[in-house]
Amino acid sequence: MVEAKKIVALDLDGTVVHYDETVDPELATALQLLDRDPLTEVIIATGRSAESTLKIVNLVGISPTWVICCNGAVILYRDPLASHGYRREHVETFDPKSVLELLYGKIPGARLSVESADGVFYFTADIPFFTLPVERRQVDFAELVKIPATRVVTLGDEERVTRLLTGAQLAGINHVFYSVGEVACLDIAPTGVSKASALKWVNGKLGVSRANVFAAGDGHNDIDMFRWAGKYGTAVAMGQAAPDVKAAANRVTSEVGESGLLRALTDWHPLL
């Protein structure tokens, strides 16, 4: 009997790496083994920008063929001749003008930014997140709204952002929300774009049976990926995930600090 090919799709922060960007050696060894296996396609699926993602890929010691960044808006393909060993194989953008104008009007003092198709981060006031691109350019609002975006990232007062989220203005806008203290962040993607849509696009190239798909993550940006993977395959939520994230998965493992991903992979993959 010929063994079928498998996909292992993995979120990074809180799943593969701890929040201080360290990785457990035992997990790194396991992922390196799976990455070398010709019948296993390890795919990173993260909200990080491309260069921030590849930093973690190198830290873990793997070289996957496909890497999904920016919550699905950017798909990288391994290419030894390209910068950092990967080229941008598929990029989704949208016109950010209307959503930026909405945010500008509803969240006074908000820090507004756009990540462009080539990975440059344009901003009106800097957003100091290490998961965003290193190449950054400050522009005025009139210029910002003209830049085709893989995503719009906004930092603002949590109360005002929450009020906007509970209203009708953001209905139908593809976004991820999280808060840091009294500051809230909105990460807005092109309509219909998610980790799930990117995985579906990649699997269109691979042709792997969805019964042989394993996906793991811990965030709200993993919910669509869980629904796609878990319909026929395995969707694993980390132990520290929020209740609604866990509800979207069909399995819950232990927390990232308790080797949750390694435990789930060991149970699922015959090589481990």
Folded structure, characterized:
With 272 residues, the chain is α/β, with parallel strands linked by helices. It has helices at 25-36, 50-60, 97-106, 141-144, 158-166, 195-206, 223-230, 243-248, 260-268; strands spanning 6-10, 40-45, 66-69, 74-78, 86-91, 111-116, 121-123, 136-138, 149-157, 175-180, 183-188, 213-217, 234-237, 251-252. The two termini are 20 Å apart. The model has no long low-confidence stretch (mean pLDDT 94). A hairpin with a 4-residue loop joins strand 6 (111-116) and strand 7 (121-123). Helix content is 30%, strand content 26%. Helix 6 (195-206) packs parallel to helix 7. It is built from nine helices and 14 strands. The longest helix is centred in the first third of the chain and has 12 residues, at 25-36. The strands form two sheets. An eight-stranded mixed beta sheet has the order 5-4-3-2-1-12-13-14, sandwiched between helices. A six-stranded mixed beta sheet has the order 8-7-6-9-11-10. It has two domains: 6-91 and 193-268, 3-Layer(aba) Sandwich (Rossmann fold), CATH 3.40.50; 97-188, Hypothetical Protein, Haloacid Dehalogenase-like Hydrolase, Chain: A, domain 2, CATH 3.30.1240.
